[in-house]
Amino acid sequence: MSEKPLLGERDNYADYLDSRREAFEKKCEGLTPEQLALRSVPPSSMSLLGLLRHLAEVERGWWRRALAGESPERLWGPRGADADFNDVVGEQSAVDEAWAAWRVEVAYGQEWLAAHDDMGAVVDGHHHGQLNVRDVVVHLIEEYAQHLGHADLLRECIDGRTGQ
């Protein structure tokens, strides 16, 4: 058995973030649009499809807004309106749109991170103030970890599946 090579700081963070992204995808595997949109824990508006939309927006916000200094429009409504979760419908077109948006934002983040080695580089994170790249990437890992816990509970309520 060969040992996994030691990674530098950036590649280590990228590996952890990608593994959390993959874990989220696995939580959603094999479910119908109706199941993905199911609000399994009333009265919460949280669903797996809502989480997917939220994570697409999170990726978009941190990579494009905070790190790249862009000003893209939000994907599903104004900040603070919970549109990521509130306007979810169990239709294939809505699922396809959410996965497509998430994949675009993940790819953007992967490309951005691959092009930037300095984890200590300081950026103006707009409404978050000054941040370094490390802060943002660790926050994204934390964001996925938190929402994977939610996804575990939602998936278990839907069909009893636990674990990855």
> Cα distance, first to last residue?
24 Å
Strand percent estimate: under 5%
Radius of gyration: 16 Å
Largest sheet: 2 strands, antiparallel
What is the overall silhouette? globular
What structural class do helix, strand and pairing data support? mainly alpha
CATH topology value = Four Helix Bundle (Hemerythrin (Met), subunit A)
Helix fraction? Answer: 55-70%
> What's the CATH superfamily, by name?
dinb family like domain
Low-confidence stretches: none
Indicate the CATH class.
Mainly Alpha
- Mind telling me which CATH architecture this is? Up-down Bundle
Tally of helical segments: 6
DSSP, total strands:
2
Quick overview of this protein structure:
The protein has 164 residues and is mostly helical.
Describe this structure in words.
- By secondary structure, the chain is mainly alpha-helical.
- It has a single domain, classed as Four Helix Bundle (Hemerythrin (Met), subunit A) (Up-down Bundle).
- 60% of the residues lie in helices and 4% in strands.
- It is built from six helices and two strands; from the N terminus they run H-H-H-H-H-E-E-H.
- It has helices at 9-28, 33-37, 48-67, 83-86, 92-114, 133-159; strands at 122-124, 130-132.
- Strands 1-2 form a two-stranded antiparallel sheet.
- Strand 1 and strand 2 form a beta hairpin.
- Helix 3 (48-67) packs antiparallel against helix 6 (133-159).
- The longest helix has 27 residues, at 133-159.
- The protein is globular, with a radius of gyration of 16 Å.
